[in-house]
Every structure is written in C-alpha cells, then in structure tokens.
Amino acid sequence: MRKILALITILVTAVFADEAHDIMKKLDENMRGQNIYIQMRMRVVSLGHERTMQMQSYSQGTKKSFVKVLYPPKDSGITFLSLDNQMWQYVPQIERIIKIPPSMMLQNWMGSNITNDDMVKQSSIVEDYEPRILKKEGTVVTIELLPKEDAAVVWGKIITNIDISTYTSNKDIFYDEEGKEVRVFLYDKVKKIGKYFIPTYWKIQPIDKQENFTEIILEDVQYDMNISDQYFQKSALKRFSR
Amino acid sequence: MFQLALKNILFYRGRSITTAVLTFVSTMLFIIFVSIQDGSHKSMLENSLKIYTGAIEIYHKEYRDTGGNEYLIEDVKTITDKLSEIEDIEAFAGRYETYGLLSSREHSAASMISGIDPAKERVLSSLKEARREGEFLSENSGNCLYMGAELVKKLHLKMGDEVAFVGSASDNSFAADILKLCGVFKTGLFEFDGSTSFINRSYFDSLMSAQNRASYITIKLKNMDDAQRVNSEILKLLNDDALESLTWKTLMKTLVEAMEVDSIFGYISLSLFFVVIFFVIMIYGFVNVSSRIREFGVLRCIGLSGANIFRLLFYEIFVLSSLAVVLATPIAGFLCYYFQLHPIVIEGMAEMYRDYGVVSDAIPLNFDIFTILWNLGVIYILNFLSIVYPYFYINSFKPIEASRHV
Hints:
The complex is a heterodimer of chains A (242) and B (406). Chain A has 242 residues and is α+β, with helices and mostly antiparallel strands. Chain A contains four helices and 13 strands. In chain A, strands 6-5-4-3-2-1-13-12-11-10-9-8-7 form a 13-stranded antiparallel β-sheet. The mean pLDDT of chain A is 87. Chain B is of the alpha+beta class and 406 residues long.
C-alpha cells in the first residue's frame, strides 16, 4: 500500500512539474515567438515627476536582442545590444560603444525600474529557474520559480501568476536571496497577435520606493518577421543608431 | 599601625625594593602601553577621517540605507549658510556622488564618481596628499578625472587618456560624457582606490543637473573631540526631520568596532604580563610574611586582631605601591605628553605600509589624565590583591602556634 502511495505521489509530482515546465515554456513562447519586434513607450515616474521614452526592440530567440531609443530627442539614437548574456551600449553623444560590465548589471536601465540584467536575463527564466505549481484558481496558475543550483541569477525566488487561457502572466513578484519582496511586475491588456498572446501594458513597481514606478506600453508588436542578422552584431550599435 | 608598617618596610629592604621596583615598572609600562594603543587608534581614525570621511556628515535620512536620487539633499546653500554660524566647524562642503560606468577603449568598470570642490577638499580631506601621478583637481580642471590607482589599472589607462562616462543624472535622465584622466591617487584603502574617481563639482553639476544638490555635506571640525557636541548643535540648527547629522562614530562604525576589538586583544596581552607581575609581588609578599610568622604570632598574642594584621599588610603594600606610583606616574605621564606633541616617527613606514592603509610615518602617544588615573587604579587593585593570600595564610595559624613557629 505504501509503495502504491509513494508511486502516486511521485507520479503526481512529476505531472505537476511537467505541467509547470509546460506552462513556463508556453509563456516564454508568447513573450518572444521565434523572433519579435516591439515598439514601446516607457513612462518612468520618480521624484514626483515623470519621463517618457520610446524604443524599438528586436529579439531573436533567447540570446539576441537589440534596442534603440527613439525618444526623447536628447537620448535618441542610444542603442543596446545583448548577445549571450553580454550587453553593449552605444551612446551617440560621445560616439562610443561601451560594454556593460557584470558589476553594472543590476543598475537601473535608463533610469527606469528595470535593470540591465532584466534586458539580458529575461530569456533565462525558463533555463535558470525550476518551476513549481503552488495553486490553481480557475484559469490562473500560481507558479514558484526557484533558481537552479548552478544558475548565475540575481533573484532568490519569483512567484508568477499565469492565465493559462492565454499563457500570459498577470503578476510577477521578485524576491531577493533572503526572501524579501523586491519588486512587482503587473501585466494587463492582453492582445492576440497572430498565434501569440501578449500583455501590452506592463507596470514595474519597486517595493522600497512605492512612489516610483515604470509603465511600459507595447504600441506595436510583430512576431516571426524577417529580422536581419545585422541587428545582432556589434556594428549594429552604431549603424542603426541613426 | 602605620608606623609599624613603615618600620617593616625599612627593615625588610629586599622585599620592599623588589615590590616597589616591580610596581614602578608595571606602572610605567601600563601607562605607556595604553597611551601607545590609544594614540595609534586615534591616529588611525584621524588618518581615515583625513582621507575622505568627515568628522560629521549630513544626509537625507533615507540616503544611506536606500540610496538614489530621491534622497539627495536639496537646497544645499541654505544648510551651508547655517553651518557657517557654527564656530567649531573648520570647513564643510557638499559632495555629489553617483555610480556610473567608466569605459576606456577596451575596458569598462563601475565607479563611484564624486563631484568635489577642489579648493575646499584640500582642507577637508587628504585626497591631494594621496596623489601618485598627474595633478589633483583645480577650479579649472573641467572634465579631468582624479582616479584611484586600482581603478586606473582595471581600465588600463595612462595619464591624459579619455574615458567615457555613462550614468544617470540627478533627475534620473541619461548622462554621458568623455572625461580625461588627469591624476591618480592611492590611499591604501583597496576598495576605495579600486572604485572611486573624483571630478570638479561645478563641471559635474552641469552634466548631472545637480546644482545646489548634494549626496551629503561633509564637515571638518577644529577639534574632533567636539564631534558629539557640535553634532547636537547642527541638528538643532537644521531643525529638519528629513535630514540626519552623523558623527564619525556612526559613519565609521566598522573601524571603531575593529579598534575596540584590537584594544581588547591588547589588554589581554597586557594582562598576561600583569599576571606575572602580580604573582611575583604576591610571592615576595608571601615569602616575607612566611618569614614573619612568629612576629605576627607575637602581635596577635599581645592583642592585635586579624583586622589589625590586615591593616598592617595593607599599609605596607600601600606605601610601597604609592612610592612606585609617585615616581612612575610623572615620568610615564611626561613621556606620553611629549610623544603626543612630538610623535615617534619611523621614516618610510607610510610608504612601506601604504597598501595596508597606513598614511603617516608618525606614531603618536595619547596623553589623557583620566586614562592615567584608571591605569593607576588597576595597579593599586592588583597590589592590594597580592596581600590577600598572605593574609589568609597568616590567619590560618593560631596566635600561640604562630608565636612558637620556627
């Protein structure tokens, strides 16, 4: 009898683990497709006032992405390239390509509440974290993501609420290594684009600075288009800056 | 009883001289050891304070814990105007610190870049004295960077090389510029030398939109011992709940704790020495008392109580201790005072040990009357304790038995 119970437990755990992996995989597919082009508007609210930026982003798979700042005019032409967890930046004002060192990866990206690491490592959520289903309520599944033993990640834990009717997240909570809540990502306004679903409104709220937040609105999203490989070379930083 | 004690002291000269000499040596060593220990700690602290940290610093309350542009001090001028009213302040300045990315052609590194007022900084810190190459900043140094030697190594820079700076301005907007390496410093504080650069405040303010803003205001006092009192005065003058004014004791908590631990280990080492001295004095006292058992027996037989015998021993040790202390204290006190004013200088020590944070060749002693008084208290207590066992030993004999003791 005990053996049967143990077998059932193992099977149930395995099924849930597989289901969690499956959900995370589908979520990841929705967020990036085979490749994805996004034009977005970012509103950063801090110090009692706000700044708005506009950007274009090109991503291919999980390892390559290119971002170009379009607005404000002062920052227009600043470009970022992520290749295999490394990141470079081109600043037209000083005409320099700068490699962002690992020690700067947790710095805020362009004064927003997302970090350089977010720009590079979002791809690794599926690879670096082990998912586990915590609960299911209707179509919403709460999944806990714990870093794998050998994973070089900054978060101690991530709790994500995924709507399995669209395989999109509506809330991610990020915890540090001591289990303290650090920030919350809220997602809304899910749109179906081709065969993919994607939330077009994101809000990033740091826990220790409640009066600050960053909103990202995806204005234009195109999946599986023909993005030239030229975007994912270091020379692109300067070439596509103009 | 006191006269009897004096007679005994003169009669048993060998024991008296040994006890007095040992007490004299202990007193001298103890006062000078504590003075060197306190002096070198004070010097370490002053050196650390000289390098960069102020005796008092004013912050926005959340700045040290949370950080970020939200917690910069706004309207620095209003605060510095108030600080000008305090007489005990020698100098003060607002510093604007930010973390940014510095990049040479091939290498990048994160750095704390601090906008400083070069003229004021010459008085406030020893950054200028820590210069190894090139020039310290001046009023007209523009985009010149004064960079820590370890950071220069990380970025593989040579004097005059250009360095790209990328960071967030005080309004969180994007800031970037090409700066130039004009000077290199080395304080010996590895972390500091490996991550810090300085730039002229007026140039940096326009790049970072930080006019009349500061990460904190650093203050140098005429006398560092007044820190607590002046700090209270500053808090009263500021009268602003959003600001905090902290003395070096809070700012350099780690160093203060390290010095306390060092003192404890110093006292432990010294206590081993005292244990030896204590036992030598006690053994001499014991041998002396052992040879006088008959004498004590006779004294008890003619009516002296146990308490009288204790008083007799106490007077003897008190007179001998006082004699030694009276001779040792002025000599030790004078040495402490003299070497406080004229520290012992070991040429080349700072150069040799710069990598370990030593920035001065001088080892000053610390002259403090209160410290000397408690040192003397310890000497007296140890000497008094040394008569306890001999006293109990004598008391273990009955008066008749003692009077017949051979």
